[in-house]
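User: Predict the complex with magnesium ion.
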Amino acid sequence: MSKIIAIANQKGGVGKTTTSVNLGAGLATLGKRVLLVDIDPQGNTTSGVGINKADVENCIYNILIDDIPPHEAILETKIDGLNIIPATIQLAGAEIELVSTISRELRLKKALGLVKKNYDYIIIDCPPSLGILTINSLTAADSVIIPIQCEYYALEGLSQLLNTVRLVQKNLNPHLQIEGVLLTMLDARTNLGIQVIEEVKKYFQEKVYRTIIPRNIRLSEAPSHGQSIITYDRRSKGAEVYYELAKEVLSYE
Ligand code: ADP
Ligand code: MG
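Assistant: Here is the predicted structure with magnesium ion placed in the model:
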């Protein structure tokens, strides 16, 4: 059984890309076949697994707009079992171009349906907006992981995200579930983090992952080396917690 998980939150900088890359790498290292789908025009997941965007021939844009078969855009990464559909800046035009396309919300779902059987997990890294690209992702997904940064205003904006999830459930994908809520970038030296954890747990209850991602400098260094934390520094705290998260995600299979 394969599962498609969207990593979504319209706030930027909450750890969507870090989680996509490192959860993907963690699951692949645990023996799962994983496809990352970069659907953010910034393409940080693409460069984060060591792909030079200038060399990308086909990206998610060509799948969504030009209707190319998805396997023509899939690339291998340095990690065994971890593939990616890359994004380049070309994707920035897609929000507008999709507006006039037939069944514009269903394009990613249709494409991933063609390769789903080849993977245990497909992880979609969403852009920081609730536009048509995120809607495509939520429509294609079985479930959504919501990363929340342990900071002031952590819950701000979440009602819009949850509203979008409900709208997608109602109109496009009744079977969409919340896979889990992931607390990220916890600074263990402050009380604030503890307060945010309590607040988020009160709100999402058993949906909150036991694994909490702390701030870890190695996690922020890895992308500039085009590596997941697992290849960049396997002994770091960052690698340890993303492994834990991968195991926790597997335990809810
Ligand atoms: P998003 O995709 O939601 O915009 P990112 O995953 O790109 O967020 O994270 C934003 C920034 O914070 C990046 O520079 C990333 O390297 C850094 N970062 C993410 N998670 C951590 C962490 N746990 N510890 C330290 N830095 C982190
Ligand atoms: Mg990102």
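Residues 16-17, 40, 44 surround magnesium ion (ligand 2) (CB under 6 Å).
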